[in-house]
Amino acid sequence: MRCSNFEKNIFLFKEASEAQQDALRLHLKNCKSCERLFQQTMQMERLVKEVASQKITSANTAKLTSRIMERIPLQSSPGWLDHALDLLQNTFIKTALATISTILLVTFSVEFFNDTPPAKYQNSITSGFAILNSTLFKEETVRQRSKRKFFAECISPFKSQQYLIDCAKSKLK
What is the Cα–Cα distance from 72 to 65, expressed in whole angstroms? Predict the structure, then answer.
């Protein structure tokens, strides 16, 4: 037989049947290259077993253990926030919340820009206070917007703090 037929049995010598082992032994007596391969395989197997049996200890096992443990994510039970986030992943819930938000936004916008007070306040004493408060609120909002526009060109994330101060001073002069 040729050597290629015995190479598989050389690597699987311990798993081979008795008949296959006997045939391999007979071949090894006559073939020096296969015997050399067999000896190398057995030596490699002994070395692997020897290395596997050695207990390797790190010089700083406590530090190694703590580093490994820090990288392991903590397994905790989900809290109310996790449940709320899971609930918000539902498409129906997202659509419902978006619809409600839109309705509220439109309602408050209409009420904000409506100059006439509601009908129930038109004939009472508090109607004047409601109109006054509404007017003051609008004026304050307009004043804040104009103030923001006034300093808008001074504010930039790419400019230094000193530039902002100098720009504000120049605007106020």
Answer: 11
- Provide the residue type at 59 as one letter: A
pTM over 0.85: no
Which is nearest to 93 in space by CA: 84, 82, 80? 84
Say how far apart CA 167 and CA 151 lie, in whole Å: 8
Which tens digit of pLDDT belongs to each residue from 109-134? 888 777 665 555 455 555 666 666 77
Q: Are 131 and 151 in contact (CB under 8 A)?
A: no
Question: Do 34 and 10 form a contact (C-beta atoms < 8 A)?
Answer: yes
Q: Residue 158 corresponds to which tokens in the numbers above?
A: 């790419």
The Cα–Cα gap between 90 and 72 comes to: 30
